[in-house]
Records
---
Amino acid sequence: MKNTNDNGVTNTNSSPSGRSGGAVKYWKGLEELNNSPEFVQKAENEFAEQVPLEEFLGDNNLAIGGGTNRRDFLKFLGFSVTAASLAACETPVNKAIPYVVRPEEITPGVANWYASTYYDGNDYAALLVKTREGRPIKIEGNELSKITMGGTNARIQASVLSLYDSSRLTGPQSNGSSATWILTDKEIAAKLNSITAKNGNIRILSSSIISPSTKAAIAEFTAKYPTTKVVMYDAVSYSGIAKANEQTFGKSFVPSYSFDKAEVIVSIAADFLANWLSPIEYAKQYATLRRVSKEHTKMSKHFHFESNLSLTGANADEREPVKVSEQGKVAVNLYNAVAKLVGGATLSSSSLSCDATIAKAAKELVENKGKSLVIAGSNDVYIQLVVNGINQMLDNYGKTIDIENTNLTRQGDDADFTALVADMAAGKVDALITYNTNPVYTAPASLKFADAYNKVGLRISLADRADETASLATYICPDHHYLESWNDFNPKKGHYSLAQPTISPLFTQPRYEGTRQAQESLLIWAGITADYHSFIQKTWTERVFPMQGKYMMFAEFWNNSLHDGAIEVGTGDEVIKKEEKADDKKKGNKKEEKKEEKKEIAKVDLNDAAQKLNAAKGGEFELALYEKVGIGNGNQANNPWLQELPDPISKITWDNYVTMSPADMEKKYKLMKRQDREASIVNVTVNGVTVKLPVVPQPGQAKGTIGIALGYGRDKAGKLSTNTGVVGQNVYPFVQIANGTLIYASLDAKIESTTEVTELAGTQIHHTMMGREIVRVTSLEDYKKDPTAGNHPEMMYTNSGKVNPATLDLWNEHEKLGHRWGLTIDLNSCIGCGSCVVSCTAENNVAVVGKEMVMKTREMHWLRIDRYYSTNWPSEVAQAKEKADEKGVGSIDMYLDMENPSVENPKVVFQPIMCQHCNHAPCETVCPVLATNHSSEGLNAMAYNRCVGTRYCANNCPFKVRRFNWFNYNESPDFKINPTQDDLGRMVLNPDVVVRSRGVMEKCSMCVQRVQAGKLEAKKAERKLADGDIKLACAQSCPTNAILFGDLNDENSAITKLRKEDERNYFILEELGIKPTVSYLTKVRNCELETAEPAETKSEKKEG
Amino acid sequence: MDTTNNKQRKQISAVFSFLFLSIIFSIQPLSAQDGAKLFKQNCAVCHTITSQKLVGPGLAGVAARVPNDAWLMKWIKNNQEVLKSGDAYAKKILAESNGMQMTVFADLKDEELKALVTYIKNPPKEVAPMPAAGAGAAAPVEKTVNPLAILLGVIAFLVILVAILRGLSHSLKNIKREKEGLPEQAKLTAWAELKVWMGNHKRTMVLIILYIVGGFLAASWDGMMGIGVYQGYNPSQPIAFSHKIHAGDNAINCQYCHSGVERSKTAGIPAVNVCMNCHKGISKGPITGTTEIAKIYDAAGWDPEKGAYTKPQKPIKWVKVHNLQDFVFFSHQQHVKVGKQDCATCHGDLTKMTTATQMQPLTMKWCVDCHRKTEVPGMKDNPYYESLHKKLSEKFKNLPKDEQVITVAKMGGIECGKCHY
């Protein structure tokens, strides 16, 4: 084999396709381009390895004479074929086991829906849970909720899989080994009693509790053990806002914000569309003012100042990258700018590079007084104080900020928490019960929580698994999953919702010792044996029922509330009055004073705050920690759907990493050519803690700052880490404590480079549109002048002049008989949050493939969200070409040059891409077995059992939406991460959709199962199909209603009207003559666009 | 003349007597046979014809117990009235059955009541053997000879015939040669002679070989195409449930048990509690007696002696007869509720089947063939299809009459994406 080597090199060089030929060259990869000896060797020897036939046949007798002859081979072939066909002939005996007593509400094959609620201390949403044969399989939003209004996010969509997590504990544990409930309860009660007897301290540490019944249960517990105190602590804390409000208004609370009333929004690093406070609610509200039409051209204006490029920043009209240390200064300068305009006193300030934008923002804010909103994401009390000051000047309180109906989902108090840890370390706490929190993992390094925790005598965890905290606990009393539990929630004053079990607990006796509702555990220890269901009813009879006037009977009220899931009961004054009365009794007559205080404190002196903020100085690199839309605070880190969800900005899966400005990187590190794959590893040191992470160039990242995502590096989250290794690194230890609050940033992060290089699994290889108009963008000003602005079709030259290719057709038009389904996506509403991606995964049984496969571009998502950075494309293209010609570099380098976003702060666009269901689909014409073909309803159908896996269709698809099953992800032992490989995980599968096997192509079916089911309902009811009867999984889960589905043959459907009337409607790559069914609406930005050029000039340029 | 007249007269009288007889038969009161049917329909849930007590008392010897037949008929029709009238015997029965009252059967006509009473008074000697005897009677008729045996017999006969004829021909030839004074020809072996014959008939041989090879190929093709097709699959079930008795003899509607058929994609195998609706009362079947029904009790946890669910429940593991591949979506509600198809179209006439058999191949070809020729009943009247129907009628109006039919296929019913997703 060696001797072919040298010859091979010369041969390839002299071949006609060689570079010397001067002809156009296409190559398969960098290896071919560089003609490396390994490549040449491989090219010479097409079949890389000899097929080890002897090994395959395995019988030495047959191999006599050094090989197996053809006859033997044929014998074996004949035998195996016969054996296989005989095996296939046997009738399989399938058993059908009906119920003994069928529950009245269950009809096999028909889904049941239950209203429920998700709240994990972080995200809140009212839900509908779809169950099939008693198993929850899909989460959808509950449109009756006045808060989330039918929206969900990726984390909530994925939470149904967490139910079937086999890493959950199946029974209580005592000192790390299995125990029985009876014994555990006895021991715990005895210990608690002895602690109470000696007047020891019992503490309950929990994330925010918004459940009235849980509070009542804790009250019962406290009555029995009077030394109990509750400390609330949120992993990602918002106590800075509460603290600032305490100073401004004399009362600690987190207000409710109304983004649907805010025509000007200034956000200082608040990622309110993805993570901040109540992102689903805000995204819904935000989208209402972002939607434009010819008649309604008013649009909110969104300014954003931040260090990392967040999802919200990517959606902003005007975004300014600012350092972490400058965030406070931005607030102060904005305060001053507004004060100047409204004639108020200014604060001391320092100048910033973004002062022009601040002035612009201030002007807009003042023009929209009372219709604007200024928010800050920092947990720094000083920043929040200044922001409060700005909002007061703008008269936003009572208009866009509701301080009466406060947001109750964040009640954590950082000061209480730090005090508790100090007490624990001092040995003053005798028993600690942790509920819905994991402080060993989430607490800052400086608190040394684990050490303090071990000093507590009795450590009880109510976690559902032996996580970082629970594994150190004396007892773990595992809670049910929320889909197995009863619960109630009060996310906002006056808003109540219920959670009801949608499945009987998975782990129950006799097979397991069983899990138990956490509240029931508390009640049992308090000596009350009532089940939590009746306990909630009791609480509601006393607390919620009197607040409403609609129903006379409690049973009626309860049933209706349970049916609706989420209810509104006025302002909730009665309960507050009751509480206040109780307070008055305790505190005497302080109430009057408070009211007077309010007005006075409203003029709180901000000079001190401004000084502190202006004094902030950063080191070489400042660090801003952030949450990802998938992993969030890390409580669902064991959920493979979330790990495989690409980050909306970096498009990287299965990792956290350091994001750094490309300019900084070039200065300091070798910039990897293939940024989406290779990354050098750096050591980041903050607070004396060092973490090793890959570094990724992130356009839009403020220079001199880095960003790292929280929620990764969980080694005790469950079996996922045993299959893949721990995903990412934990950076919660980097959290600082300043001025009594937790600060998710550091002004001085030390970075040390290493020689190590790692690979990251990104799903998007190209980061810019390279001069094409895949996403069409225009500015609001242009749109007002011309509704077709930014939406100019690529013209085609024919012998009869320039023609719109949409009017040309090689084939006959399709008949307009029955339905013709269409999908339109409003790019103005789409915020790129990824909720639809997870929803699609859940609905269509999409496989999880893991990091290795994603690196090979083999992810299986049927729906992806493309993210593009803006470039000055015509000049960029020209430059790249010139440069390539001058230096004689190849096209790959040329394209790589074009790939670099042109500006430091590029504009970002998101575009959900699924199968475009082309009416003249290129995939259909190349399928040799007609496995993919067109339905009369306009859908591009895929018959999996017909597919032989040639992959011609994927190669011919201009949108690259087809996914190939390279392996049997559902059975192969290499893909243990796939939920379908687990007996429990398999229960999440949608029984109406086939689970695809190896060698089969798959893609978006436009939820054909939902379409068929919707049609069937209409047929059965003998009525016409109404517009909106069918909702696709992606459209249903979209928090901003960006996706519209309907019948294009129905004259009156919303989608037909929209396509007819809205000039923003366009089809991507329409110039190919493929007639896609999916259309998009041009994105309109409320700002001036620097780079947009009409398509006309562009094509003329090309001509020239 | 006379003879013809006579003939005519005979014919007329025959016709008249036939008419007369048929009238006689048609107005004949309902017989005990109908009584049996009525009993099954109305009474069997609570009473047995023997002395065994179910919900109500066993009815053996009831005629002797009650005052008279008229009273019995009155009691069956409306026991409430009899009770109200203060009848002593009625009160006694009520006391005996712990105050549990009997259902009122006001709809029963007098003849029907008579038939019922006749049946109750003269119960059949042995209830069980009725259909069993039928089966036994059928057995001799079905005792047919295996066609393969006949074929083999014929072949053996022919071979023997050939051998005899060969010997005969050889002897005759030798006799002829003897007459002509030629020496006797040695007898060739059969194989050698066949070789000679084959040498002389090469064309025929080629044809024969082609025929054999062709037959082999055709047989293999058939065999291959039959892989995975289980038409005629008739597995034995854990309980010898008879569709014939339930759906046939007792005319229970299919949907009573398979209640999901109009609401779900699956028709559903009934839960044991559905069986118990009737079998709480009927503990003895006509063929298998109590053994099979006892299995239902065992599954349901029912204790027939105590009359209560006291034992642990054990789900019945039925063997699935109709196995459709996982990659095809089939909906019963689409076919039965919307398409108004009869169950028998796919499942055959189950009223005549003891155990369910897969009557159709359930291949895609079979589905598609039906979709190609079936016009959707009820499509015209269903507002859902209104515009589609109009457009399709318009489209096909110029075609010949038989092609104007709007079949499922013409509506898109054979597109891949309708069943495979």
Note: Chain B touches chain A through 60 residues (CB under 8 Å).
---
Amino acid sequence: MFDYETLRVIWWALLGVLLIGFAVMDGFDFGVAALLRVLGKTEDERLVMLETIEPTWEGNQVWFVLGGGAAFAAWPQLYAVSFSGMYLAIFLVLLALILRPVGFNFRGKVHDPRWRSLWDGVLTASGIVVMLISGVAFGNLFLGAPFQFDNDLRMSWHGSFFELLHPFALVAGLVSLTMLLAHGACWAAYKADHVVADRAVRVARWTTLAYVVVYVAAGIWLAYGVAGYAIVGPVVTDGVSNPLYKQVAHGSSWFASYLEHPSFWLAPVLAFAGAIGVQLTVGKKGLGGFLCSSLMVAGTILSAGFALFPFLLPSRLDPRSSLTVWDASSSKGTLGLMLAMTLIFMPLIIIYTSWVYRVVRGRVTLDHVRGSGHTY
Amino acid sequence: MIIDPEVVTLSRLQFALTALYHFLFVPLTLGIVWILAIMEAVYVMTGREVWKRMVQFWGVLFGINFAMGVATGVTMEFQFGMNWAYYAHYVGDVFGTPLAIEGLMAFFLEATLVGLFFMGWNRMSRIAHLLTTWFLALGTNLSALWILIANGWMQNPVGSAFNAQTMRMEVTSFAEVMFNPVAQAKFVHTVSAGYVIGSMFVLSISAWYLLRGRNTDFAKRSMTVAASFGLAAALSVVVLGDESGYAVSENQKMKMAAIEAMWETEPAPASFTLFGLPDVENHTTHYALRIPWVMGLIGTRSIDQPIPGISNLVEDAKGRIHTGLQAYDAMLVLREDKDNAQAKAILAAHDKDMGYALLLKRFMDDPRKATPADIQKAADSTIPNVPVLFWSFRIMVACGFYFILLFSVMFWQASKRQLDKRRWLLKVALWSLPLPWISTELGWIVAEYGRQPWAIEGVLPTALGVSSVTAGQVWTSLGGFVLFYSVLAIIDAVLMVKYAKKGPDGLGLWPPSEPVPPLTNVAAHAGA
């Protein structure tokens, strides 16, 4: 139906969809968890916050699991190189994700303030760890990673955990952190009791402002301080998936694709528009603020993805080993089959997820959690 | 590049530990979710409150377990990339697909609905809640289907071919991967084992209530459901386990021979060794107690086909290493000159054996330089750990037959409405609680340890699949897993025992007080 080149572009876009789905759907859960003790001053207030995400966070986290599965199936080398190369960082994310389901479930099972504050700490820390490390990992994509392939396409990585903490990557981590904290605060402003929501409005305003500052800083740094990568010579877009068949130069600009495709500028514009929208609408404590922060999240991820295109993960050690959209994908048959599956199941997922959100609609009030003596 | 054997060992250990740990929780979820679905269906059909309370009470225990299953499942999805990067590259085109479809079709469904199962009682109609529970059950079981399709392909890699240009396996027929007979047999065997675990869980805890004279109506009803469902499941797990055995003998002859400690090929139909002490060094089994014909019948469904023994299979492996080396050589030629017709023809003829040449890579960089002694060593390495497989298999099967017996007796007692009449039977039911977990874990040991030295049977040796990480990194993660998993295991066990002991009466669920508390009150009342 589609040729190999088109399928690859579609799967690059779908990778973006999954990342945005993860950041938008799961991101606010992380944000709420991280703000648990900031916005919730009493046990009841924290119960309110937890209940705003309790019925749905588990489904939201599947965006992440599905992202991993889809990367494995559609971009196997991207999955293999990034997960094994950034081993300890990924392990920290994994621990954070392991502790979340049990944290949500176990927290309410024992009536002891120490027990509950322990799990509050766990949930907060796990939210922060995932938000920060996701951003730091994204930042490292721009810096290029220290890996190379041998002729068997076995990857070797020549760097340590601490090398991932380059100042630019840390700024990227801050972009992710401030963005998702703002996103979580917008959710709390929309869903939580007014006592909590009023605090959330203030936090959303400040974190959005902080986000704009670090996002602009990261953009300027990227333009002037981080060299880009470019494929040299003829670009074969429907060739076999073997990264070693191309040549790559390091030293161009990451903004090259923006000059080539001016429409890409819509992505950062979307991010800024979202941030402005949050400032304007979050005070109403309605769905508007949350929708604006969702746009902000989507615009930020798109702007990064567009800058990288066609690179998925460049190598600074051996640039030709870099993974690109044109040479790191699965076979044509697998991409086609997976696309068919996505087209069948993604609409179903959206339908039943929307239904669940409809069932649990409405603001979670303090009276509600006090009245029901809630589990969580 | 020579692979660090310490990294291989540590990565295998970590995978084995995390997978076995994950599978303490998964089968209980798979089974108990259907028991909840049955109970809730009875509630909706009869309108009797006690059945709703049963769903809610067993649901609390289900919830604790479900959280652990989800938490430890994420590890599995990550680990292929973290620790098995070359594996992920080499087979991602085939193996990644069922994992991704699992997410799309199954995991999304169950994870999205599980919140409503707990919190939706007062927010939707009875029918809508029943549908939520049923789709939750469907989601968990579909999830198992896709995972076992992925695992089935590791045992029997159909529908795929090696591509020398991309240095990996690629899908040639996804239908073959999906309808892989090994995967289908494994799926029904594995979910049946889960149903046995779910049934035993409900049966044992209910037996404990009856022994204490607590919650008797509640417990008897629960036991009746568990005994009937458990009997069907136990019968199915044994019958379909036999189907699984047949499928294994078709494509993993070495695993079959190791399970049987069958060192030499016997004249057909082979006998089944009921008991014996396998002696790895001398390739013999001491004190063997053999039942004539049985093995031949199970393994080949015939009386005239022989089942090959270990020594013969090692000889076969040697032959396949030799042809595999021709394929390997042709692959290297093709990498430089992709249109070389002669090399293409050789690779096409022998690519099914190339994995055997890769067995040599554990010992040397260039398998083409292998001496006959190296080849012998590689061929010998295809023998899995015979005593472990021999015993694991026998204990698993013995448990399987015991489950049929126990559930039959309990079913009989339930039919005669005499569940609380024989205390010793209740004690037996209570103390049988750990057995299905033991047999299930042993089943995985047979399946996966028995697959060694292969990650993908005949295609990719396990040792080759590892990432280029350092031993120090794997020590760190392994230590982290041991620490966190141990703490979580203790918390899980404490909470399970706490809530099982409280019981429906202690939680204020049954008999109903006035007013009847909604489910979400459960824990609050528990602590009050």
Note: The radius of gyration of chain A is 21 Å.
